Each structure stands twice: as structure tokens, then as C-alpha cells.
Amino acid sequence: MTLLARKHGAVNLGQGAPDFDGPDFVKDAGIKAIRQGHAQYARMFGVPELNAAIAARFRQDCGLEVDPETEVTVTSGCTEAIAATMLGLLEPGDEVILIEPFYDSYPATVAMAGGTVRAVTLRPPTFALDVAALRAAVTSKTRAILVNTPHNPTGHVFTRAELEAIAALCRERDLLCFSDEVYERLVFEGEHLSIATFPGMRERTVTWSSLGKTYSLTGWKIGWAIAPPALTAGIRAAHQFLTFASATPLQHGAAAALASGSEYDRAFLDDYRRRRTMLLDGLRAAGFTAFAPDGSYFIMADHSAFGFADDRAFCHYLVAEIGVAAIPPASFYLNPADGRSLVRFAFCKKDETLRAAIERLATLRTKRPPRSV
After folding, report:
1. What is the C-alpha to C-alpha distance for residues 98 and 334, in angstroms, rounded to an integer?
2. Which CATH fold topology does 24-258 show?
């Protein structure tokens, strides 16, 4: 969709990457590290300053003490943390339960490890977890449940009751839990809870996060995995042969970011709350049924009112004829039919970008699609 956006000169609300830069104090820390000669390979599992900063932030947010030397692994973005976890902790034939729609790296990395996927579906308008379906999905081959909160692409923030149900099932069936928390700072409704803090979960949970989403520096690709030593050993065994280490000066910049105070976090959330409202209002005015996200920087909307056969046909029309790029989410489901009436928009964009997109989307009310769609 990004390629099509460039081809048609469309406003790109597809890819989840900001079109604005990250904060100067973080960039300055990275530049300082370059000038100070931090140009060689970093320690395989992270420069000490960053590992310590990740552990300190986790303690501040969750109240859990983790050892930065044995329980924190710095990776090349959260996507590499996901791959290293799957490759390091799954055996061929293991099943992983995904909650769909899902980030498309999840099933790909499970497959790389020789595992298989079972899925439980979140459905609009609330995208609440079907606990009975989750329990029914567990088999004798299940190795782990993967939870992503705040959730990409629905924006659902898992409630305490939902997370407790997942935790209870993990304890009962002796399962691992993989918890993707990259949008932890983007919570508009409810509260972000790390499942590792629930009783009996610390010893069986791998928590993933990253720098990119909170500090608008997605291209730095600095992520991490937090897990007890026995699980960390498996993650590091895979990480060593995937990337070995992440960019050294950027790790120093990331350490400075995590050591910053709460003033940045408040302004960051306020800006995104405004952007969320702006795009929600624009989508609804254009005729979409748009579902307000509790967190993340994505909005899922139902495009059925416009008469298209599926999400792909709609998104191709949207980019080519309306001049706005969005994501057809059917590929985020095991059964593509579950996503055919939906479309995903990203609001990690400048105000002027969102205004331009909203102005173009408004023409959907008067511009009729061709019969062939």
C-alpha cells in the first residue's frame, strides 16, 4: 500500500510509521554516542546502560524487579525479539495461540520455528476477548499464548479480567505467555497492565517492547525482550545468530530516552489523543463505522456502506481514486473473510497529513465507485 500511495500521490495512513521526527534529546544522545566513538559491535545482549534503563523502566511501570544482565535482551526492534523468542523457545510441532487480527510477523515467525498457529478472534464493535473460545483453542500441543496489548490493529486494551483469564489458563495448562507491549504508552481508555505482574506469570512470561513507537523513532530498530533467565537463555541463543547485536550508538540514545521523565510521556499521549479524535470524527463524517481504539495509533473501520466486495478492493479504490492509503486487514486473520469488511487507518501522522486525508475521504460521500467493484 505504501508503494501504491507513492504511485498515486496518496496521503498515506497505511503503514504504522510516523511522518514526523522523534525528540531532539534522544537524537542528540545518539549523535553524542557516535562522536564519543561508540562505533563497534555492542555487547550481544545490549549495552549495559540500556539494559539497566529497560530494567529500571519496567520496575517503575510494573513494580517488578528484573536483572538487566540475565533477564533483559536488546534486539533489532521488537520484530527481532519476536523471532528470537519463537526460534529460541519453540520446538517443531508446538502450537502458539494468537489473538487475531494479529501483527503479521507472529504467524511467520511461528512457522520459521516449525510451529503451528491456532487463533482466537476479536470481533467488532468491542473487540473483547472470547474467553471460552480461548480455552477451547488450547490442545495438548499448545506451548504458548501470545497477547498484544494495546492491540494492533484493533486498539483494544485488554482488561484486568481478560488478562487474568489468560493467566489462569497459562497456569492451569503450564503454558508460556508472550506479551507484546510496544504500544504501552498509548492508552486512551482503561489502563495498561503487564501480564507478567499477575500471580504465577513472571516465571512463564516473555515481555516484548521497543523504543520506536513511544519515541517516534521506528527506523532506529531498538527493541527488547524481558524474561526469566531460563527463557532468556533460549532467546539469546537465537538472537546471537539473527543479528548478534543492535546499533551501538542508537542503544545509547535509547538509554537516554528511557531515563527521561514523565513530562514527555504526558505530552506524547495528549498529542495522540487529539489525533485520534481528529481521524475518528473525519472517518465517521465520511460514512465509515469507525471503532474508537482504547490504545495504539490505529483505527479499525467498517467500509461496508460503500458497497465494495472486500477490503482489498476497497483499499485499492481508496488509494487510486480518493487519494488515501489504508491497510486491508484480511491478511491479519487466518480466515481472510473475517477482515473483508474492515479497513485499518494509522493516525501517527502530522495534523496537516490527517487534515488532508480527511478532506479527501469526505469525497466518498459523493463519489460513487464503478459497478465492477
Report:
1. 10
2. Aspartate Aminotransferase; domain 2 (3.40.640)
